[in-house]
C-alpha cells in the first residue's frame, strides 16, 4: 500500500472544505475551465463535484452533511442488502440511499445538451457514472474524497465504480467518515489497499453508527493526534489515548515547549 503524501492530503482536504459553500471556483485548484461537472441530489443541491484537468486524474468530491435532513440520514443506519453482479453485501441504508436518490440533470455553461442528459429518473450514482465513463475511457483514473457522510458516499461509490471499470479507481481518501458497511462489505470491498480513512482526535462521527460490531471500516486508518499520525490503531486505543491527553493537559501546559514561540509572536505585542 503506497503512502498518502502530504500534498495529496492537503489537496483533498481543501477540496472537501470547499465543497460546502455554493460558490466554488474549481480553477483555483488547477483544474481546467471545462473540467468540471456537478451532480445534484433530489433536493437540487450539489452533492458531488467531478473535477479534472490535463493530468490523468479525475477527482470526485462528495459533500458531507450540511442540513437537518442530511444529519438525520446518519441515523438511518439499519443494514440493507445490495447486489452488484455476483457480489452481495450489506451496507448502511442512509448512505446507500444518498447514492440511489433521484438526481436532476446539471448543464454546465460549456456543455451541449443531449436527450440522455435530461432523463429525470437517473440516480445520483448513475449521473456520476455518466460523467466518469468518457473520462475513464480516455485513460484517466479516479480519486474519490469526501468529509463525514460524503466520505461514506465516496467509499460506497468507489467500490461500485471499481466493479464497473476494474482498475479505474486510483485512491479513496475520506475525512471524519462514519462506518458504511457490515462485515460482508468489509470482506468484499475491493479497494483496501487504495483507501485512506483520516480521523482526527476524538471525532465522534468516526465512531458512528453507535452499535458495536454492526459496521466495519475499510482501508487504512490514519489517526491525527497530538501532532502525530497513528496507523490502524483500535477504537479502544484512540479513546483511551485521547482521554489520557485530556487528563494530562494541565501538566503539559507547563512544558517548556509551550513557552517557546516564534519571534514574530512577541513582535506583534
From TrEMBL:
A Pfam short name: Lipase_3
Keyword Transferase applies: no
Domain annotation Fungal lipase-type: ranges: 59-211
Keywords: Hydrolase
Any GO molecular function: hydrolase activity
Classification via CDD domains: Lipase_3
InterPro entries listed in its UniProt record: AB_hydrolase_fold, Fungal_lipase-type, Sec_MonoDiacylglyc_Lipase
Keyword Oxidoreductase belongs to the record: no
SUPFAM superfamilies, alphabetized: alpha/beta-Hydrolases
Coiled coil: none
Matches recorded under PANTHER family: ALPHA/BETA-HYDROLASES SUPERFAMILY PROTEIN, FUNGAL LIPASE-LIKE DOMAIN-CONTAINING PROTEIN
UniProt-recorded name of the protein: Alpha/beta hydrolase
Amino acid at each position: 500500500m503506497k503512502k498518502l503524501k502530504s500534498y495529496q492530503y492537503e489537496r483533498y482536504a481543501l477540496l472537501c472544505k470547499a465543497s460546502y459553500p455554493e460558490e466554488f471556483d474549481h480553477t483555483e485548484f488547477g483544474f481546467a475551465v471545462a473540467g468540471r461537472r456537478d451532480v445534484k441530489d433530489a433536493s437540487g443541491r450539489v452533492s458531488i463535484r467531478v473535477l479534472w484537468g490535463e493530468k490523468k486524474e479525475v477527482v470526485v468530491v462528495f459533500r458531507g452533511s450540511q442540513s437537518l435532513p442530511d444529519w438525520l440520514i446518519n441515523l438511518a443506519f439499519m443494514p440493507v442488502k445490495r447486489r452488484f453482479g455476483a457480489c452481495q453485501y450489506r451496507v448502511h441504508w442512509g448512505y446507500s440511499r444518498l447514492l440511489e436518490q433521484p438526481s436532476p440533470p446539471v448543464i454546465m455553461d460549456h456543455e451541449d445538451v443531449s436527450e440522455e442528459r435530461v432523463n429525470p429518473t437517473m440516480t445520483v450514482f448513475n449521473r456520476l457514472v455518466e460523467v466518469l465513463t468518457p473520462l475513464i475511457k480516455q485513460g484517466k483514473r479516479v480519486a474519490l474524497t469526501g468529509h463525514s457522510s460524503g466520505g461514506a458516499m465516496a467509499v460506497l461509490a468507489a467500490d461500485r465504480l471499481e466493479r464497473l471499470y476494474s482498475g479505474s479507481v486510483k485512491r479513496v481518501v475520506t475525512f471524519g467518515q462514519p462506518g458504511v458497511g457490515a462485515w460482508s462489505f468489509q470482506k468484499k470491498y475491493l479497494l483496501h489497499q487504495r483507501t485512506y480513512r483520516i480521523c482526527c482526535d476524538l471525532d465522534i462521527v468516526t465512531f458512528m453508527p453507535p452499535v458495536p460490531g454492526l459496521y466495519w471500516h475499510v482501508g487504512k486508518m490514519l489517526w491525527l493526534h497530538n501532532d502525530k499520525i497513528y496507523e490502524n490503531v483500535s477504537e479502544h486505543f484512540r479513546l483511551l489515548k485521547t482521554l489520557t491527553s485530556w487528563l494530562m493537559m494541565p501538566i503539559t501546559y507547563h512544558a517548556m515547549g509551550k513557552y517557546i514561540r516564534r519571534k514574530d509572536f512577541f513582535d506583534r505585542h
